[in-house]
Write a structure and sequence with these properties.
Length: about 110
């Protein structure tokens, strides 16, 4: 994993794998936000696979796929995710950029 901490509340990462969830939880994150649409690339794990693995280690998981410009609906869903996750959040997508954009747009 290549996690880039933005501040005490948020970090971003390229694609994570279901087997990364234990390490993510042990690093202190309380939830994840996936900004990547399912089936964007062959072989990428589905959000459902990620969410099931996250749940097993006590992480909350939210799927807010971004494939172009950010929309008001995506920003509202991200604000809701932030409100439901009590602690640090790890956002991810292919490179981490879209996840970071979601966070930046809600500051």
């Amino acid at each position: 994993m290549n996690i880039k901490k933005i501040d005490d509340r948020f970090a971003q990462s390229p694609q994570i794998q279901p087997e990364d969830m234990k390490a993510i939880a042990e690093a202190g994150y309380k939830g994840i936000v996936c900004a990547r649409p399912d089936n964007e690339d062959p072989g990428q794990p589905s959000f459902d696979e990620i969410a099931q693995a996250a749940e097993k280690v006590g992480l909350k998981a939210f799927h807010i796929p971004v494939s172009g410009q950010l929309t008001e609906g995506q920003l509202i869903r991200f604000e809701q995710a932030k409100a439901e996750i009590d602690g640090p959040i790890l956002g991810y997508c292919r490179s981490g950029g879209r996840a970071g954009s979601l966070y930046s747009a809600t500051l």
